[in-house]
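Ticket 4471: requesting a sanity check on a complex prediction with glycine. Repro inputs:
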Amino acid sequence: MKTLKVHLDKKAVLSHEIRIGRSIRDRMILLIAKNHPAPLYAVVTDSNVNRLYGRTLADAMIQAGLNTSVLEIPAGESAKNMATVLSLATRLLEQGADRQTLLIALGGGVVGDLTGFLAAIFMRQVGYIQLPTTLVGQVDSAVGGKTAVDLPQGKNLLGAFHQPRAVFADLQFLDTLPEREFVNGLAEIIKYGIIEDEKLFGLLENNMDAVLRRDPALLLKIVETCCRIKKSIVEIDEREQGLRRILNFGHTLGHALEAESGYRLSHGEGVALGMIAAANLSSALGYLAADEAGRIGRLVAQAGLPTRIDADLRPEAVLGRLKADKKKKDGALHFVLVKKIGMPFVNGGIGDDKIGSVLEGMRA
Ligand code: GLY
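Returned structure tokens:
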């Protein structure tokens, strides 16, 4: 099992560990018992993950002497809302939860974000542990303490920064991950290569077949590398005042495309298209060599992610969504561009005409 330490302040009061390995459940339970004692552990999970892993995890924790309950929520983004938070809070109170209760988020991004948010506000804050079961969760959303639920007006509009007490990424969970979900995670992994690590980008270029076969040793190396990159960024800029924005590479346009498609495009697919658009924009504005932008497009295609925007997604409509986003964010849209692979920067003012023509050029 690999261990990374996340240091969020100089006195290390807010430090925690990310542990990554394969089939680490029993060691994880021992570590939780030793390092995170609590009178009640509430495992929050969705109906799909519960069926596969929730009950067995809770049984193993109970066998180890830990007072554990399971709180199931419906699977899917539509459960990521305040109604689910209120229902979970009510169930916690019925079980006698108090401020010492520790929540355990067992699932993907929805479960992780929602459980973290509940932990941030339940009895003015309780601790939680992230146990991500998806590739996106393991390389991105479970690390860094962003928590949120959606509002009818948009995703993640209610949230808080609340760091987990620990993150355990067990690669065994990836064995049962549906193909589309796995490929979603590859978009975030490619992103880390582009924004921070050309070696990782090259590793993906040369080994995509093995990655898609879910080669265990390769996945361990990749998940560890991505967690290392993310934690280094979060250590410097936990609250996204500057540097952390680079983690949004491909996401600004990606979110707009995802929403404009009525969520027919998955998050990873939107981000993949957004990354190609950001690379093409970087190239059109003279920052990035055209062949480097081409490498990004080819790697996205190798991963089985889309490289063309469906003809029914009109650039004007996508630009309209970007403008609405801009209003929400104080008039400034922070576009992450790249000078070369591994060298991102944030650009505040790109004209609609440039974005529109890049989108037009990517239409199928
Ligand atoms: N997923 C982007 C971030 O955590 O900042």
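Notes from triage: The chain has two domains: 2-176, 179-362. Leaving this open until the requester confirms.
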